[in-house]
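Continuing the batch. This is chain 6 of the set; chains 1 through 5 are on the previous pages. Same settings as before, nothing changed between runs. Recording input and output for traceability.
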Amino acid sequence: MNPQIVDARFTAQASAPEQLPPPVSLEIAFVGRSNVGKSSLLNRLMQRRNLARTSSTPGCTRRITFFEVRTRDGTLLTLVDLPGYGYAARSKIERRSWSQLIEHYLASRPSLSAVALLVDVRRGLEDEERDLIDLLKAASPSRAAPRVVLVATKIDKLPRSRRLASVQAIAREAGQPCIGFSTELPDTTAAVWQALRTAIS
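Output for chain 6:
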């Protein structure tokens, strides 16, 4: 659980760049492959069962979704659920439009302060994740490059003896820390939240 968030609400959705709402606070975006667990992590952070839509079907999130949250110390933040990428069952045109929307948001959003990049611990980093890290490290004319928080999801799917080593392997390849997360392990939610707060401070 995450007792630091005391209020959370849905505020907007966008399926095209011109539909993006004006920024109202610092934004933390959540990005990763389809079915990597973005919505599940968001729901845990916001202490809501289904505020962020979850599905067992990959590619369920097709729009950028914005949630306003208020923390215990009164800070207002916006958590942003980005469409999952890499789901082959969608048409090439649809996948391309999602990719362009994600890249537009990540490259040009002036209020974007941090990005949680979610990676399935069983798959590790692949070309798409490496490309995203490179994109995020490039500063925009309108803002400094957002801090990247790398999160290895679904660590409960691995034997206990392999979890730490698998997370550390992802961290070594990425050249930065990586945090293990699972909805089945409550303490991991607090660890992710602490890393995000540190990234935007």
